[in-house]
Write a structure and sequence with these properties.
- The protein is an alpha+beta fold and 569 residues long.
- The protein contains eleven helices and 33 strands.
- The strands form eight sheets. A five-stranded antiparallel β-sheet has the order 5-14-13-12-11. It has a four-stranded mixed β-sheet with strand order 3-2-1-4, with no helix packed on it.
- The radius of gyration is 43 Å and the shape is globular.
């Protein structure tokens, strides 16, 4: 820039750094002086021409006095100039600050150097603040709207003659037999009909007749034992019980694969002499495991297949430990009698497309069975027929569980896929069923169970990632939530859904599986809503979705999605 321009322009404190399309221009704001006035003022000063050297002026063009716009381009000035009489020059030592030996700079170093040089140059101009004004984009949405043209669908190419099973001339040929067995033909089995004897329904130990007979004698023995009316667990205080279960451990002898596929249910026999666990599998199998029979060929595991679809519920009769009831997605409820050694049909849904999802006991001989079509069936096990005595439509969607009050048997709970838990009175179902209260959960509810001793609480598990405990001391519309616990219940497609369950002899604790790592089973307090104990260990490496306590001993059994049972004792 010429000396005339530097001496004539009076800079303002404010300047704007204006981005341009091809280069960057530093636009200097002039206080009430335009470019033409500045040039005229320069021409009228006689001392300026005298100061300039005549030799210098001979080789220069007079274009500097003819320009009408004054722009200072930030990349035209040589920052390394050291003229002492230049009033635009930076401070002393400015050049030495950036003078370095020639070398290749990294991108970050070059950027940092440019920032420092630009900042020093602006300071030398007396500019402290730089404001960047973004350019306004043109509104391209104004005016006529462009019509969107949908692409025409591409016609699908016809199948080749090979896929149509035709020869090159287009003549049909005989289809060869497949060299493999499709998966659907293996698993989509028809529901077994009629009674199934234990010795014929077993699918392992087929060659060990002696071992099978010995195991069936053991079942007959524990089936004759009367369950104790009052257990030691009921009399223990919460603190004493929690102190006792701290010694429960999982060992290698306490892990066994009991079903071929995913476990959908688990139950523990109440016998105090023989530890027997039952597990319901995905494809209709019921595995019985005599945990202490470690010397048998398959470590005391015996697998039966009385059903063809998932066994979602297993329960031993409360007053007859020799009877095992099972509800399956194949639409049937079966009774396994240890004394007779046979699985009998108790109830079969007439519609083959519907499923039995859960069951509970109204009395020693009566069952209430929930179904996938939103109905419940009242079944009398004493009748030879496999039909229900009564069927009631209670929900519009699948009922996932049913629970009968332990003292007042006319009241029962239903948990449905329609996100509601309903309390019903059996005496008010004849004409048009009307529930006592509906408790909405926001999302599907997997289970709802009364507490086992007095029924003063009931516990629900929902897909909305909460466990809830309700106060049910008064069975009316005044039922309120005691507390709800945030809990990850999203098990995904390949794991069985969580169903929080009570300890069968206590009302102050309940158990539920966990998605947390390291893998564990969580024990919650129904009084404080906190986790009071976790069952874990190095040998527990999977999620146990189904869990059950022994009613009289400190034993917990958890089942995972590969059909393995884990015994903590």
């Amino acid at each position: 820039m010429s000396r005339i321009t530097r001496r004539s322009i009076r800079l303002s404190e404010n300047a704007e750094y204006m981005p341009s399309k091809n280069y960057k221009v530093l636009k200097i704001e002039v206080n009430k002086i335009n470019a033409e006035d500045v040039l005229k003022e320069v021409d009228n000063e006689p001392n300026i021409n005298k100061e300039m050297d005549e030799k210098t002026m001979k080789g220069k063009d007079d274009k500097e006095t003819e320009n009408k716009e004054i722009e200072v381009v930030n990349n035209t000035r040589d920052i390394g100039s050291t003229s002492e009489d230049d009033p635009m020059e930076g401070p002393v030592g400015y050049n030495q600050q950036f003078k370095e030996e020639p070398r290749f700079l990294s991108l970050e170093e070059q950027r940092s150097r440019n920032v420092q040089e630009n900042a020093a140059f602006l300071c030398s101009l007396g500019i402290e603040k730089v404001v960047i004004q973004p350019t306004k984009k043109a509104n391209l949405g104004r005016g006529l709207k462009r019509k969107s043209i949908k692409p025409e669908p591409i016609e699908r190419r016809p199948q080749s003659l090979r896929l149509q099973n035709k020869d090159p001339e287009g003549v049909d040929v005989d289809k060869p037999a497949p060299s493999y067995v499709p998966f659907s033909t293996i698993e989509d089995k028809e529901r077994p009909q009629g009674s199934i004897a234990f010795d014929k329904g077993i699918i392992n130990h087929e060659d060990d007749k002696k071992g099978i007979n010995s195991f069936h004698k053991t079942l007959q023995h524990i089936g004759k034992q009367a369950p104790s009316k009052k257990t030691k667990q009921e009399s223990l205080s919460t603190s004493k019980y929690l102190s006792d279960i701290k010694s429960m451990k999982l060992t290698e002898a306490g892990i066994a694969k009991v079903t071929k596929s995913r476990a959908f249910s688990v139950a523990v026999h109440p016998s105090e002499d023989v530890l027997l666990a039952a597990c319901g599998g995905k494809w209709g199998g019921i595995g019985l495991w005599q945990v202490d029979a470690v010397n048998s060929p398959e470590h005391g595991v015996y697998l039966y297949e009385p059903h063809s679809r998932p066994v979602n519920c297993l329960k031993f009769a409360p007053k007859d430990a020799g009877k095992l009831y099972s509800a399956s997605y194949d639409g049937s409820v079966r009774l396994g009698t240890f004394e007779k050694g046979v699985f009998d049909d108790v109830y079969v849904i007439p519609n083959e497309e519907e499923r039995c999802t859960f069951l509970d006991f109204l009395s020693d001989q009566e069952l209430i069975v929930s179904q996938s079509d939103g109905k419940v069936a009242i079944v009398d096990t004493r009748t030879p027929s496999t039909n229900a005595e009564q069927v009631y439509q209670l929900h519009g969607r699948r009922i996932k569980s049913v629970s009968v009050h332990p003292l007042q048997k006319q009241y029962f709970l239903t948990a449905s896929q329609d996100s509601n838990v309903c309390l019903w009175d059996m005496r008010k179902l004849d004409k048009k069923p009307t529930n006592i209260v509906t408790l909405s959960h926001g999302k599907s509810v997997d289970s709802a169970y009364f507490s086992p001793i007095t029924g003063k609480y009931f516990l629900t598990t929902s897909i909305d990632d909460h466990l809830r405990v309700f106060n049910s001391e008064t069975l009316d519309q005044n039922i309120r939530t005691k507390f709800k616990i945030k809990h990850n219940n999203h098990t995904g497609r390949w794991l069985t859904n969580f169903r929080a369950t009570w300890h069968p002899a206590r009302e102050d604790v309940f158990i539920v599986g966990s998605m947390a790592r390291p893998r564990q089973i969580e024990l919650f307090s129904s009084e404080t809503s906190h986790i009071v104990h976790t069952f874990n260990g190095e040998l527990l490496a999977s999620v146990c979705s189904c869990n059950s306590f022994h009613p009289t001993k400190n034993i917990l059994i958890g089942a995972n999605s590969s059909g393995r049972l884990h015994v903590f004792k």
